[in-house]
Structure formats: structure tokens, C-alpha cells
Specification:
alpha+beta; 60s Ribosomal Protein L30, Chain: A; signal; 259 residues
Length: 259
């Protein structure tokens, strides 16, 4: 009797054990996480910037190439800095006067920052703005005598000033070889005073340049004149934008065109 019960008991035990295993499977070991060197939650295999913490989906940090505060993904001009309210693009300055169009009362005409982008009135064209000219209808005589009030003074003029242009008057400013004379140095210093009164920011040093014959004596003279004038004006008026302008033809000669 006992022998007949043993096989049945074993079968029952096996069935119970199998059922328990089915209901309680063996716990699986946790999987090793994928490598993530920068710890940004993006696996190295999918991370385009694996050594720099970033964001999904590529694991790279937000870029701002021009440093203007507008992220490249939202910046219409990612290589040129602009104000935040301008979609990352720089403000436009159509007339090139240094005053952006949105703050320029005269956006189509180059003016001055102190006049909200408009050209200040200078009725007598002596370099003094009317608002600061004691004699707005009478031009200053630039001769070294009271050249600070905008009024004419006794004595011959040493500069001709009109319509944004300064030309020498009186003794020659340059020798025949183009070397600066003493009168020329004084004249350029007076010209610097005109540029200061006019709040000029750009000056074109105009010289008569022959149309052909590179390296000729006239060309070398013109180059010396321009170089000497630029050196003096740069010393007298630091920060002034200076450039040489070569002119040719009848009436061409040394002058300073300013704006």
C-alpha cells in the first residue's frame, strides 16, 4: 500500500513545485545602463556631444554662436549678433550714419547721433551748427582769431570751409615734393578744430592723383600729402575715421571732405 502511494505523492509534489515556479519566476538581473559619459541622459551611442552635457534629442547643449542671447535654433542671423527683440538680427542702418533706422528721425539721409540721425542745420556752412553758432547767418573766418564762436573776425582766412569741405587758404601747406610745411601743420590743426566744432566722424583726405604713370613724382607727392595730413589729424582728433580719396581732373587738389 505504501509503495503505491509514493509515486503519486512525488507526482503531486512535482506539480506543486512547477506551479510555484510558474507563479514566481526567477528574478532577472538588472541590465547594465548604456554608457553616458556626460550624464545628460542621452546614451553615448546616440549622443552627438558625448563629452558635453546637453538636451534631447541629440545630447548637445543649446548653441548661441554670436552670443546675442538668441539660441541658434531661434536666431534668424546666427552669425551676427542682434537685440533680443529683433529675432537675433542686427538693427538696420540704411543711411550708414551710426543711428539704427528704428531710432533715426531721418533714416534715408545720413546725419549725426546727437541730432537723432538727422543732419544738423549749418546755415552759413562754417562748421558750427546753428544751435551753437553765435552768428548763424555769417560764416566764421578761420584765421586763428576767436575761432570758437562762429562769427567773422578781422584778418585773412587760413581755411576755406563750406558745405562739408575744408581747403587750404594762404601759405602753401606742402612743399613741391609733398612734404608738410609749418603753415600746413598749423592749417591742419585749425582744420581739426573745424572738425571738432562740426562733430565730424568721417574725413576723406582728397589729393590730386594722376590718372596714369604709377610711381611718378606727382603720384608720390599726392601720397605724401595724404599720409602727412592723416597723421596730423589722427593725433589731433583720435577716433576720427580717416581715409584717402584720390581725385583727378580739372580742379582736383588737396582738401578735406567731412561728415
Amino acid at each position: 500500500m505504501l509503495r503505491s502511494l509514493v509515486p503519486g505523492a512525488l507526482s503531486l509534489a512535482l506539480l506543486l513545485a512547477l506551479g510555484w515556479l510558474l507563479l514566481h519566476p526567477h528574478p532577472r538581473l538588472p541590465e547594465r545602463p548604456a554608457p553616458d559619459l556626460d550624464g545628460d541622459g542621452v546614451a553615448d551611442a546616440l549622443d552627438a556631444c558625448a563629452r558635453e552635457a546637453g538636451l534631447l534629442p541629440d545630447g548637445c547643449p543649446p548653441r548661441d554662436s554670436d552670443g546675442d542671447g538668441a539660441l541658434d535654433r531661434d536666431d534668424e542671423c546666427p552669425e551676427r549678433p542682434g537685440p533680443p527683440g529683433n529675432r537675433g538680427c542686427p538693427d538696420r542702418d540704411g543711411d550708414g550714419d551710426g543711428v539704427v533706422d528704428r531710432g533715426d528721425r531721418c533714416p534715408a539721409q545720413a546725419g549725426h547721433p546727437e541730432a537723432e540721425g538727422c543732419a544738423p542745420a549749418d546755415s552759413d556752412e562754417d562748421g558750427f551748427w546753428d544751435a551753437e553758432d553765435a552768428c548763424p547767418e555769417q560764416a566764421e573766418v578761420w584765421n586763428g582769431r576767436d575761432d570758437v564762436d562762429g562769427c567773422p573776425d578781422p584778418g585773412a582766412a587760413r581755411l576755406e570751409v563750406a558745405a562739408g569741405r575744408i581747403a587750404p587758404a594762404g601759405p602753401a601747406w606742402f612743399s613741391r615734393s609733398g612734404r608738410l610745411t609749418r603753415a600746413g601743420r598749423v592749417g591742419l590743426q585749425r582744420a581739426a578744430a573745424v572738425l571738432h566744432a562740426a562733430r565730424a566722424r568721417r574725413v576723406r583726405v582728397q589729393v590730386a592723383m594722376p590718372g596714369s604713370g604709377s610711381g611718378t613724382a606727382p603720384q608720390r607727392r599726392a601720397e605724401r600729402e595724404a599720409a602727412a595730413a592723416i597723421a596730423v589729424l589722427a593725433h589731433e582728433r583720435p577716433g576720427l575715421a580717416l581715409e584717402r580719396e584720390d581725385l583727378s581732373g580739372e580742379g582736383a587738389g588737396f582738401a578735406l571732405a567731412f561728415e
